[in-house]
Amino acid sequence: MSTRFEALPHRHVLTLPTMPSAVRTARETAEQALTEWGISLRHPTVDPALLILGELVTNSVRHAAVLSPQLTVIYAAGADTLAFAVHDRHPYQPQLHGAATRGGTGGLATVMELALGLGGSAVVRTDADGQGKSVWITLPL
Where are the transmembrane segments (predicted)? Predict the structure, then answer.
């Protein structure tokens, strides 16, 4: 999928403390945004998307909190696309596609299995200063 996030008409940005409560808040905010944008929570892409979102926020909480006291979630959608990103300021760059091919379970392996299984994509974008990153997920609706 090559949709540019900037081209999607619906966008919402949420910044949270990098702590366990962020997982629930990010998910609840996604559900609210999707409803406001007219995307049914019963759409077959929504539950896997929420699981992916939860895994990514959990990874930031578990692995980035020491260097990144906040994380940011970007939500975006269009008529046929759902996209979101989780950003933190920890310099570690996860290997998403390696997680899918190593046969791992949970975490990034789950993210990749779900994203690719839905016909979506996942990429890591490094901050310009190399001290943070965003994991971007794009899924077809």
Answer: none
Torsion sign over Cα 131, 50, 7, 2: positive
| Residue 84: partners with Cβ closer than 8 Å, 6 or more residues away | 30, 49, 53, 73, 74, 75, 76, 136, 137
Domain 5-140: CATH superfamily, name plus number: Histidine kinase-like ATPase, C-terminal domain (3.30.565.10)
**CB-based contact 55:110 (threshold 8 Å):** yes
Angle at 120 between CA 15 and CA 54, to 5 degrees: 35
The three-state secondary structure class of 104 is coil
Q: Can you give the residue ranges of every domain in the chain?
A: 5-140
Model confidence pLDDT, tens digit, residues 82-126? 999 999 999 998 888 665 555 555 678 889 999 999 999 999 999
pTM comes to: 0.90
What is the C-alpha separation between 69 and 22, in angstroms, rounded? 11
Which value, to the nearest 10 degrees, does the dihedral of the CA atoms of residues 133, 45, 10, 108 take?
0
